[in-house]
Known about the structure:
This protein is of the alpha+beta class. Helix content is 20%, strand content 32%. The protein has an eight-stranded mixed β-sheet, with helices on one face.
Amino acid sequence: MSTRLACVVFDADRPRIVADFWAELLGWAVTIDRTDETDVAAPDPDGLELALTFLPTTRAKDSKNRIHLDLASRSLDHQRVLVDRALALGARHIDIGQGAVPWVVLADPEGNEFCVLEPREEYVDTGAVAAIVIDTHDPVRLAEFWSTASGWPIAHGSAQVAGLRSATGLGSWLEFVRTPDVKRGRNRLHLDLASFPTDDPAAEVARLRAAGATQVDTNDVGGTPGLVLADPETNEFCLLRTASDYSTV
Length: 249
């Protein structure tokens, strides 16, 4: 295994505005600010959190995202504080059919859904982002692919939900939740993988394709420094050419 998870990428109409929202909400900092990219990362020098990257797009958001972030809370009071902070920064409450649940579903200033979770034991040491959540028709199958791609072992898996976490036991979870929803168009959020200068790019692509990845027509994907692929459920992701392509990691 030579690739690793580098970041969560948001397509954004106003990248800096959305980046500022997430930086303020998470207590992180803007580390790159260019016209073609804004990055937000945790201040932790050990890099236990995946960074967030915001890229400009001209495509309007027209459906629920298939990838979203779950935020961790330490107590019910802390959960309320996080919700109030998010609303003050420009978030809004949304109804995606969640019903009566202990977590709070919100949307950021560009409508990207996220959840502020009630305190849960499994997220006590994750940092601000408890989990990166991917909607899927087959949680175990998609978890197997992303375990191969990221090197993170599968911690649990069932027909309804599966989860990966770094072998260090630190940082956010990567979780896969069963949904009947159909993917529509290109995802507004996606994951980036990073490789290293000593890797053979062709061998890495072959390894990912053997696990179920397919190559994507890049005519619809601009501004990326690497190769665009899709996982077995057609969720796009980028394989950065080397770790140096992602300067905040």
